[in-house]
Amino acid sequence: MNTNAFVVEPPQPATSSIIWLHGLGANGRDFEPLVPSLPNQHTRFIFPHAPERPITINGGMVMPGWYDIYGLDSTSEQDAQGIRESEQLVCQYIATEIEQGIDSQNIILAGFSQGGAIALHTGIRYPKKLGGILALSTYLPLSNTVDNEIHAANRKIPIFMAHGEFDPVVPFSYAEKSRTGLEQLGYNIEWHTYPMQHNLNPDEIIDISNWLTKRIIL
User: Fold this and answer.
1) Straight-line distance from the first to the last Cα atom of the chain, in angstroms, rounded to the nearest whole number
2) Residue 206 belongs to a domain with what CATH number?
3) Which of 77, 124, 125, 216 would staple 16 via disulfide (CB 3.0–4.6 Å)?
4) Residue 153 sits in which domain range?
5) 140: how many CB neighbours lie within 10 A of its CB?
6) Is residue 178 flagged as an active site residue?
7) Considering 113, 121, 137, 163, which one is annotated as catalytic?
8) Active-site residue among 143, 198, 207, 209?
9) Quick one: pLDDT at residue 8?
10) 167 given a catalytic annotation
């Protein structure tokens, strides 16, 4: 098992799992405080730590990141290799949960910012049916490859997308473009916006909890 993650076991035997990816420069414990506010009686929360890597846009500083970022403009080159390496890491975590007896349909991929980008990227390509994707303050990377790489198993995967209207890090327009592109491919997006920047707020946490309640075995 890949042990480079912080894991919160449920008080009752686990029947579902949420693999939750943090944002750039954070670590796996970043969203641990949310667990008590979410359905957790039978849900195992896996919070992986991203690999340390130099981040170009931050002057090459080494920090936890799921992939490099070369620029903030929508036309900037993307780190396809890093994105696909992180996709494989997430697939390893999914495989571990399946080996532990969790049905793939009861596994949800979640993430914030960079982590949300990897959750979206991986979830729609994964070859077994998953329970859903929770994508917070993020966008869909490598969107030009999506049409050819979508896996039929997750053509109808439920997707929750949420974004701050005043986000200075991942512009609101990036999220809207990703949402529109996914909808044009036939995905049903539950879309939420909030009067915030690049963070979460209490109303969003309630909406996340309600969405998860409909997706997992309580």
Assistant:
1) 25
2) 3.40.50.1820
3) 216
4) 5-215
5) 21
6) no
7) 113
8) 198
9) 97
10) yes
